[in-house]
Amino acid sequence: MSSPFSKLGFRFQLNFQFNSRHLSNSAHFKATTIDDSRKFMDYVREQCQLGFTNLQFPINLFHQMMALPRRPSIIDFNRLLAAMLKLKRLQPQSTVISLYSHLDLSGTRPDSHSMAILSNCYCHLGRVDFGYALLAKSQKLGYPFESNFDFFNTLVNGFVHNNQLPQAVELFDVAVVKLGIQPDIVTYGTMVKGLCGIRDYAGALHLLHQMNSRPSRYKSHLIMYNTVIHSLCRDKLLTQARTSFQP
């Protein structure tokens, strides 16, 4: 059965050998006992915290994890693949998608965090539609959308940065009105920036007022006000900039 993550055509040549000079003097590291596996996974977690400088090393770690006597949980795979995404200059998104496809085909079930990471990859590749399609898969697997802020904010941000603001507004409205999601300051900040980008200052101000009507933890950040004021001034709407924030 084909994986839903393999249909995009992303391919990557993977090296299945682990370079063990990071672990021992032997030619290749191989975990043969549970204790070996634990030590190896402690090492992997440490490397994820330290960060990587290339893609090949974490790819090798991934396949070594797959070969352990007892396969690690999806949480550890998420940690490794999320660390790979920090190598932004190397554009790791298609590689991460390919590795998740390999996981899915091998029977390791993705969790809600996996879905958020995958959605982020697709959004960075300009395929927000694929990222949005993961919402249906996530719900099918039993992960409620309203409990995953990362997923929600990733999709909103993806729509905004790919010049699909109407879709971002629609998602925002559906999430808030129909699903009862309470947007956080990241969501509001992304939406305000997007609305200012298309010069919809009335919409941006409406969101700010809506945000300020919520509990104190949602109070607008100074940066949001600066975003609106800067955009108004850029468009030479100085009078509106002065009057928009008067009490």
Q: Features of this protein?
A:
mainly alpha; 247 residues; disordered N terminus
What does this structure look like?
This protein is an all-alpha fold. The protein has a domain at 1-109. Helix content is 61%, strand content 0%. It is built from twelve helices and no strands. It has helices at residues 34-50, 56-66, 74-85, 93-105, 112-124, 128-140, 149-161, 165-178, 185-197, 201-212, 222-234, 238-243. Helix 2 (56-66) runs antiparallel to helix 3. The radius of gyration is 22 Å and the shape is elongated. The model is unreliable at 1-28 (pLDDT under 50).
Describe the secondary structure blueprint for this structure.
Elements: H1 34-50, H2 56-66, H3 74-85, H4 93-105, H5 112-124, H6 128-140, H7 149-161, H8 165-178, H9 185-197, H10 201-212, H11 222-234, H12 238-243
Helix pairs in contact: 1-3, 2-3, 3-5, 4-5, 5-6, 5-7, 6-7, 7-8, 7-9, 9-10, 9-11, 10-11
Separation of termini? Answer: 61 Å
Globally, the shape reads: elongated
Largest sheet: none
Q: Determine the fraction of residues in helical runs and give it as a percent range.
A: 55-70%
- What value does the average pLDDT take? 78
